[in-house]
Amino acid sequence: MAKRRGKSKRVQSSGGWRGTSHRLKQGWGGPGGTTIRLARLEEGLAAVDLLRLSGEEPEPAVLQGLEMGLIGATLGRALDHGHDAILRDLAVALQSPEPSWGSLSASLGVLLVAVDSTGQVVGALLAHPPTSFLLGLAGQGLEQKNVLLGHAAIAKIKGLAVADSSRHTGIGSALLRRCREVYWQCGYELLYGQFHSDRELLPSFYNASDFEVLPEGGGVDLWVVFGQRVSLVNEPDERIFYRWRRHSG
After folding, report:
1. Exposure pattern of 69-104 as b/e (b: 16+ CB <10 Å)?
2. Which terminus of the chain is more solvent-facing, meaning fewer CB atoms within 10 Å of its CB: N or C?
3. Contact 232/240 with Cβ under 8 angstroms?
4. Residues with Cβ < 8 Å from 65, sequence gap 6 or more?
5. For 86, what's the count of Cα atoms within 13 Å in the CB-facing half-sphere?
């Protein structure tokens, strides 16, 4: 994919999609006549309720960001103007003695929805930088500068849910694909998530979507991101699925 800085229109030839903020808001065609796009304010509660049914409780900062119109704000600028748009926002945050981590994570996050022909939300995906994890690395000696840069390199899929009536139609896979395309276009290096080990069907689902699924106790070396030996490791009774951008076709 050729990238041209400063241009408002970007095209990924392999996927046939236009990676701009306009496209993120207006959406792409999805399975069964659905539209996949960034959630609108009036759809936020329905999307959050769907995620809760899957066992994921969105963080308060995400809900506040949705109400304030912050979700995806910085990512939208990056889609239009390149990765430097993210670095500029991070530079501003670095100058603050107390960065607003919640707002920063929300602006670098996406709440994607799959909406059917009647306007009903039938699928939802929430992703944003893993602020709590990155701040934990700061406690292990990672400099604040690298904590901030981690927000421009790593995104976590916090929740993915599809309504019972729309399962097994490809909506979950389509939400994953669009999420991945947005973050790759914005210059991120790693996309990952976690699920409880007792979810027996999820390993094959994520493998089919070209993610690697680790066994319990597995971890991801983050040397390529931070230049020091820090790792992303499983929580007890959870498994990690992940994908590096450099491994994408």
Report:
1. ebbbbbbbbbbbbbbebbeebbeebeeeeebebbbb
2. C
3. yes
4. 71, 102, 103, 105, 106, 107, 109
5. 25
